[in-house]
Amino acid sequence: MQSIFTLYAGRMFLVRFAGLLVFFVIILQMLDLLNKSSDILEVNGAGGAELMRYISLRAPQIASQFTPFAALLAVVLTLAGLSHTSEITVMRAAGMSVNRVLAPFGVMCALIMVVHFIFHETVTVRSFEALDYWEANDFALDLPEDQETRTNIRVKFDGELIKAGSAMRTGDLVLMRDLTIYAIDEEGLAEGGIEARSARFENGVWRLFNVRSFEAGSLAVTRSDTAVWTNSLDPEFLFALALRPEQTSLGELVRKIRQLREDRADARDAMTSFLSRFSKPMATLVMPLLGAIAGFGVHRQGVLLLRAVTGSALGFTYFVAENLALALGKLGVLPAIIGAFFPLALFLVVGFAIILAMEN
Questions:
Q1: Rounded to whole angstroms, how far apart are CA atoms 307 and 156?
Q2: Helical H segments across 120-224, by residue range
Q3: How many contiguous H segments (helices) and E segments (strands) does the chain have?
Q4: What gap in Å lies between CA 251 and CA 233, rounded to an integer?
Q5: Alpha-carbon radius of gyration of the chain
Q6: How do residues 52-61 score in pLDDT, each as one tens digit?
Q7: Are strands 190-202 and 148-157 parallel, antiparallel or unpaired?
Q8: For residue 127, how many other CB atoms are within 10 A of its CB?
Q9: Closest by alpha carbon to 4, among 128, 111, 132, 94?
Q10: Which of 159, 233, 262, 269 is most buried by a 10 A CB count?
Q11: CA dihedral in degrees (337, 339, 345, 347; nearest 10)?
Q12: The model's pTM
């Protein structure tokens, strides 16, 4: 009887999980495509093939992001349905404990966690990198192979605050676009700045193009076609400082963290992101515990709905706590391991406490 129930409940959960995940991917992909389609089709020669390429690169990111969320709702809907048809009541009357009733959901969520981790590392990371490179080049056609790309760069080095729209490496060429450089004094105030349309690293220095510089004291503004930037920031250190963990493989991420530590740079952001690559897929394991409240108890009119909403609310609270802890870890307020795994450990304790309360 237990094995039959395990297969029955597990299959029901997987069907709902797959349906919810496909639903989220389709809806969110449509909304995202509406926002980006004009930029993609603006390029001369772009058409349906480019739209399909964007979908193929963006859809894995959406699927990876919403996998734990789909698992939560699938658990809540499946348990609420089994409770509504009194199937859980029958199983409990037959001697099955709460743990045995939840066992198929735990097994399926563990399987989803493994698949999610493998999918993210083999597919999603590459799609992040490819889409970032394509978008940084304004969705241009026939781009050369990407060696390394960083976008939305914000770093402080050698007494200057450096902002750039993107930094790209293609072969031996390193190019930054939409560059803004602020000279910072000891009190943290801007003494002046330089704006450049682009910058190229050549012969050990950065050469700026289409330059506009200004002085904070005199408010004087000067313009020039080219200028030399004397900052000692080399491309290797720039790409390490501007690391984008979501588009970096685990092996490369470890090497970049080691390089940041050797250069005595701040590696807290990168380390927290590295640990979150393991904690985020593991979030799926918590969902059966948090959604369990939807399947047990008296299902009089209104009570079942309240329990389902409570289970969903616990799951939403987990996602909020996870994002908050990761943000605090990246800022250095919390140690990296605490920022990555504390919400997981906390809600595991909460989930098991709920199960013990229901069992008693």
A1: 49
A2: 125-136
A3: 10, 6
A4: 24
A5: 26
A6: 999 999 999 9
A7: unpaired
A8: 18
A9: 94
A10: 269
A11: -170
A12: 0.79
